[in-house]
Design goal:
73% of the residues lie in helices and 0% in strands. The two termini are 35 Å apart. The relative contact order is 0.17.
Length: 224
């Protein structure tokens, strides 16, 4: 990852955290100040989707042209995507606690998001249950395609077909001109970019670390 992208990521998140906590927000019933969670909860999920899409891309590449480097990229993009997904879930539960009265309501979007994360957790269980590296990489690449295909309807389609407390679901209006005004857009959209860039940065660091670890293991095996 280029140095200027790292600097940009840090600068954007510094701006998002400062403006997100101090700038004015629309005064809406029930939401009030909790609407500031929009700058963290939703962008983290956008970052998660971006990283899962990157993992999917590398999985498809691996199936076409198998190599350890591509497999490492696939698994580390998925790792960091899972991290952002869990953080997005926790910030969403904190928001729900103040606006809905409890962290978990069994809302269709909450349930769909939880199932999507469980589907991706099974990806890591699969990798951990196979010893042969080539078989592990190939099977997990195939499963990764299934996991991404399952995530999209679980998060974006099924909740919209049911009654839901979430904006944009079950007939509820999404964050639009009613509540996401221009003041918030100036923070929300940079937040999406910032969290995605930070996720990419962490993924590249983990790929480099995993590469060093695996190369050292191979060296040790050759010596023995």
């Amino acid at each position: 990852m280029k140095n200027w992208l790292k600097i940009l990521a840090v600068a954007i998140l510094l701006y998002v955290h400062t403006a997100g906590l101090l700038a004015d927000v629309p005064r809406l019933n029930i939401l009030n100040e909790t609407i500031r969670a929009l700058y963290f909860h939703v962008p983290m999920w956008f970052g998660m989707i971006f990283l899962f899409a990157g993992s999917l891309y590398h999985s498809i590449r691996y199936l076409r042209n198998p190599s350890p480097e591509i497999d490492r990229s696939s698994v580390e993009f998925a790792n960091v995507g899972m991290l952002l997904g869990i953080l997005g879930m926790l910030t969403g539960m904190l928001w729900a606690n103040y606006t809905w009265g409890s962290p978990w309501h069994g809302d269709p979007k909450q349930n769909g998001a939880a199932i999507a994360l469980l589907v991706y957790m099974a990806y890591f269980v699969l990798r951990g249950s196979i010893d042969n590296h080539e078989q592990k990489a190939r099977l997990s690449a195939v499963y990764n395609i299934f996991a991404f295909a399952a995530m999209i309807p679980l998060i974006f389609i099924i909740p919209r077909l049911q009654d839901s407390l979430h904006p944009g679901s079950g007939g509820n209006p999404g964050f639009n001109i009613y509540d996401l005004d221009n003041r918030m857009r100036l923070i929300f959209y940079p937040a999406v970019i910032g969290w995605s860039l930070v996720g990419l940065w962490i993924a590249t660091l983990r790929i480099r670390y995993r590469t060093l670890v695996e190369e050292n293991l191979e060296l040790d095996e050759n010596i023995l």
